[in-house]
Specification:
Layout: E1 2-3, E2 23-25, E3 31-33, E4 36-38, E5 46-51, E6 57-62, E7 66-71, E8 76-82, E9 88-89, E10 98-102, E11 107-111, E12 118-121, E13 129-133, E14 138-142, E15 147-151, E16 157-158, E17 161-165, E18 168-172, E19 179-184, E20 187-189, H1 196-204, E21 211-213, E22 220-223, E23 229-233, E24 238-243, E25 253-258, E26 264-269, E27 274-278, E28 284-288, E29 295-300, E30 306-311, E31 316-320
Parallel strand pairs: 9-13
Antiparallel strand pairs: 1-31, 2-3, 3-4, 5-6, 6-7, 7-8, 10-11, 11-12, 13-14, 14-15, 15-16, 17-18, 18-19, 19-20, 21-22, 22-23, 23-24, 25-26, 26-27, 27-28, 29-30, 30-31
Length: 323
């Protein structure tokens, strides 16, 4: 399935027959007509993705500020807005009925069944990663420097401690007995144990790189300084594999994702190639085609049977994954 804005290229000629009126459309969605930039793009270079927990709702947004939400079972558009942006993390709520959007100052909760039903969570965190705790009753946003927690129903901010821990930021209850979220460069770690310290230190060493971690925290993948993908076991603190194994990459890695159990690693590159690697040894399982231009975001569904990609061509593609 492919989701995105429908548009077509066409030539333009003035009534006098001259062809010096030029319409240009760049890969990132910027449009110019006779050197004048058109404010609303034809499409958007997509770089943020989320799938609902049941795999039925897909949300995507891009750098030009176009956000769309679809029901992917019946191809119905649930929400679409220009000038809005998805936050990082999981903007689709746990129940799949709402979506969190970024405004200049707040997070806005929007109903997917009634787009006028909204609620604001004040004082958003810049580049904060959205997640939920306590069976979805708490909304959390955090980066490596700060975090905030809101009551999901009321929208009011509640107060929890947050402190750095060896490269991560931990959000916890006042007595630190309940860990709500651990933010790392690879995203959110949903649990805390002694091995987390090793993982945080390892992930922090690749703070400016692309990385991802499995839900069970048994596989951490990242693009190393040589442009290769490395698989690391945070629990045993050891390197598992490198891809390509011969130590040379032909194109720049632009996106990474890991299935929930770490069995499959999805790798996107600047040429639109999408590779599936075996998470245990880094061997190539499959190469998926269909993306045009760089892959900028990859997302597995919670059950690992769907894989969504987003890229500079403005399209969202969903692939079926056979274990």
């Amino acid at each position: 399935k492919i989701f995105g804005f429908n548009f077509a290229f066409d030539s333009y000629t003035t009534s006098s027959g001259r062809q010096n009126d030029i319409l240009t459309l760049r890969w990132d969605g910027e449009v110019k007509y006779n050197e004048t930039r058109i404010e609303e793009p034809f499409y958007d270079s997509q770089d943020r993705l989320d799938l609902s927990e049941d795999g039925k709702v897909l949300a995507a947004s891009g750098k030009q500020g176009i956000t769309s939400v679809w029901n992917i079972e019946d191809n119905q558009v649930l929400y679409q807005k220009y000038g809005a942006r998805l936050p990082l993390g999981d903007p689709i709520t746990s129940d799949g009925k709402y979506i969190i959007m970024e405004t200049p100052s707040v997070y806005r909760l929007i109903s997917l069944s009634n787009n006028t039903d909204t609620r604001d969570f004040s004082e958003k965190i810049q580049e904060g990663v959205i997640s939920y705790a306590n069976q979805g009753s708490l909304l959390i946003s955090g980066n490596l420097r700060e975090s905030k927690v809101w009551d999901y129903k009321s929208g009011y901010e509640t107060f929890f401690d947050s402190h750095p821990e060896n490269g991560c930021l931990v959000t916890a209850s006042a007595n630190n007995q309940e860990i709500l979220q651990v933010n790392s460069t690879a995203g959110v770690v949903p649990l805390w144990r002694d091995e987390t310290k090793r993982f945080c230190a390892k992930s922090f060493s690749y703070v400016n790189s692309i990385s991802a971690i499995s839900t069970d925290m048994q596989l951490f993948v990242y693009r190393n300084s040589n442009g290769l993908v490395e698989g690391f076991d945070p629990l045993e603190n050891r390197l598992l594999w490198k891809y390509p194994s011969e130590g040379k990459s032909n194109s720049k890695i632009t996106a990474l994702a890991v299935s929930s159990d770490g069995s499959i690693v999805a790798v996107g590159d600047e040429k639109g190639k999408l590779l599936l690697l075996d998470g245990t040894n880094g061997w190539l399982l499959a190469e998926l085609v269909g993306n045009f231009g760089a892959v900028q975001a990859i997302e597995f569904s919670a059950d690992d049977v769907k894989l969504a990609t987003a890229g500079v061509d403005g399209m969202i593609r969903i692939f079926g994954v056979v274990q």
